Amino acid sequence: MALNPGDSFPSDITFQYIPWTEEKGKITSCGIPINYNASTEWADKKVVLFSVPGAFTPTCSVNHLPRYIETLPTLKAKGVDIVAVVAFNDAFVMSAWGKANEVKNDDILFLSDPDAQFSKRIGWADASTGRTGRYALVIDHGKVSYAQIDTQRGVVTGSGADAVLASL
Description:
The protein has about 170 residues and is α/β, with parallel strands linked by helices. It has one domain: Glutaredoxin. The protein is built from five helices and seven strands; from the N terminus they run ββαβαβαβαββα. The chain has a seven-stranded mixed sheet with strand order 2-1-5-4-3-6-7.
């Protein structure tokens, strides 16, 4: 079932994640993955969650993620507490992608959706690849206030930072 504006964010969503630390800040350093209970962590916050088909892929690395990095101060000024990106990649790859893009201090959380479990649950996994789809959600204190998916390959519109900003 797809999430729609007005829906409650599911109560049992856990991603994997490697917290950013200065001592593990180099791309060649590895941290230890931990579970990140999004349902609990986001219950009383305004969150922008965007999903990409894969870390280090062309559209995701050139068009999708950079605009979120650029607009992070504006998103925060509009009351967003947390910005997170999710992909089917494992937590090590997601952590390296954040480091490669010089995102520090968990300014954007790089979360792993193992086997695209969350994306499949909401019906927004890519059926042909089994990967996470390209979508964006705004979750405001446990309620979805924005939900858009881009289904055309290589196109970032409704899931992009500018569309999300316009919805805030």
